[in-house]
Specification:
199 residues, mainly alpha, rod-shaped
Length: 199
């Protein structure tokens, strides 16, 4: 009877040990699998989605900014042309003063020149197109910086995912088709050469 109890205790210990090992393996696999899914979603959805969002932001913003700057520059050109013509008209009025034959003609020409001078100085615009071009340049630089940051974050997410799935035990537990190795963002061919800027 004592031997039977001792054998039963041994079998309970062995069974308990096997059950404990199975539970540990199950929870380890579950943790590994869930972490791999978390990293995969970070790469596929969040990090790559952020890169795409920055591309879309640039595609939406840059044409609008360029058109705004072009419109402002064209408007300023029109205003400056009118102001220049108004100032040129002052010279014509000066001729009227010099050629005046009587005091009435002199007074009319004097009023014209005062009005033209006032209009020319009141209408003289502040030139903003240079500032607009600088703002455009700043927005372009900001867009490119945001894209570069999103690409860097994507590469970091890929590195974390690949490190997790390629670990010694994780690579044995995880299915390679469900969790394939991801590629980092790579530059286009020839982008290592600085572009030539022409004016």
């Amino acid at each position: 009877m004592y031997k039977l109890n001792l054998n039963m205790k041994k079998s309970y210990i062995i069974f308990g040990g096997i059950a404990l090992l199975a539970i540990i393996l199950f929870f380890s696999y579950r943790g590994t699998y869930n972490k791999a899914i978390e990293f995969r979603n970070k790469v596929d959805n969040e990090a790559w989605g952020n890169v795409q969002t920055m591309y879309q932001r640039r595609a939406d913003l840059v044409p609008q900014l360029v058109e705004t700057v072009k419109g402002a520059a064209a408007n300023e050109k029109d205003i400056l042309t009118k102001v220049t013509n108004a100032r040129a008209g002052i010279a014509g009025i000066n001729d009227e003063i010099l050629n005046a034959k009587n005091p009435e003609q002199m007074e009319i020409a004097g009023k014209k020149i005062n009005t033209a001078i006032n209009l020319a100085f009141e209408a003289y615009p502040q030139i903003q197109s240079t500032k607009n071009f600088q703002d455009l340049q700043g927005q372009l630089e900001g867009s490119e910086n945001r894209i570069a940051k999103a690409r860097t974050d994507y590469n970091e997410a890929v590195k974390n995912y690949n490190t997790h799935i390629e670990g010694f035990f994780n690579s044995m537990f995880l299915n390679k088709q469900t969790f394939p190795v991801k590629e980092s963002f790579k530059a286009s061919a020839g982008s290592e050469v600085a572009p030539e800027v022409k004016f």
